[in-house]
């Protein structure tokens, strides 16, 4: 109780009030920051998927191929591609050869050179996990083996294989988004394999 004639000090310390207010608001601010970070990461992932999708569509629409670069000796033209009916590498090869001077034979009997795709396979393995065991990243592999022979069996390109590798971060997005990005990576693998096979034909045969 104050003495007569003495006034009570009703003023408060602004710094203490500010610190108290910030301590009360800190959890809410942290949650907002975390939510903003998650939205930002999701937006970045979506933008990446969108760009990959648009690039893929552009390549398909424009008939992406190596014009003027793919060539084989005239005496080995036309070429027949022997592969499984659902071979992504075969599709990529046909697409790229469409703009070149290399003709495609409808059957092996009509060809002077036969490109044989023996096998195509894909696999993945975990390369990073967090402290709780959640997978953070995979390593994707695309394996292709092939050779090239003439119709009478003479080998023009020895049997060889490709093992294409790429890391794939496990995104914090819906399963459909993960599947889409993984599918686009494997499509890119097939195009890359086709590029390498055609380059090997050119280097070996010319």
From TrEMBL:
Similarity comment: family membership: Belongs to the LptE lipoprotein family.
Domain of life: Bacteria
Gene that specifies this protein: lptE
Name recorded for this polypeptide: LPS-assembly lipoprotein LptE
Binding partners and assembly: Component of the lipopolysaccharide transport and assembly complex. Interacts with LptD.
Species of origin: Thiocapsa marina 5811
PANTHER family to which the protein is assigned, alphabetical: LPS-ASSEMBLY LIPOPROTEIN LPTE
Any GO BP: Gram-negative-bacterium-type cell outer membrane assembly
GO molecular function (one): lipopolysaccharide binding
Known role: Together with LptD, is involved in the assembly of lipopolysaccharide (LPS) at the surface of the outer membrane. Required for the proper assembly of LptD. Binds LPS and may serve as the LPS recognition site at the outer membrane.
Transit peptide recorded as keyword: no
A single cellular component GO annotation: transporter complex
Pfam families tied to this protein: LptE
Keywords annotated in UniProt: Cell outer membrane, Lipoprotein, Membrane, Palmitate, Signal
């Amino acid at each position: 109780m104050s003495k007569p004639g003495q006034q009570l000090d009703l003023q408060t310390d602004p710094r203490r009030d500010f610190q108290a207010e910030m301590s009360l608001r800190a959890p809410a601010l942290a949650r907002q920051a975390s939510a903003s970070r998650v939205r930002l990461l999701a937006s970045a992932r979506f933008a990446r998927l969108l760009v990959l999708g648009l690039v893929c569509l552009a390549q398909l629409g424009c008939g992406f191929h190596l014009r003027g670069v793919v060539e084989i000796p005239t005496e080995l033209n036309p070429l027949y591609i022997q592969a499984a009916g659902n071979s992504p590498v075969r599709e990529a090869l046909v697409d790229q050869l469409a703009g070149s001077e290399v003709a495609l034979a409808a059957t092996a009997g009509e060809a002077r050179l036969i490109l044989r795709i023996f096998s195509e396979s894909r696999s993945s393995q975990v390369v990073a996990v967090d402290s709780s065991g959640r997978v953070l990243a995979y390593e994707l592999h695309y394996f292709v083996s092939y050779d090239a022979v003439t119709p009478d069996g003479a080998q023009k390109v020895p049997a060889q294989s490709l093992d294409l590798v790429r890391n794939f971060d496990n995104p914090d997005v819906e399963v459909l988004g993960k599947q889409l990005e993984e599918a686009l990576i494997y499509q890119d693998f097939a195009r890359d394999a086709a590029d390498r096979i055609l380059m090997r034909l050119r280097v070996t045969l010319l």
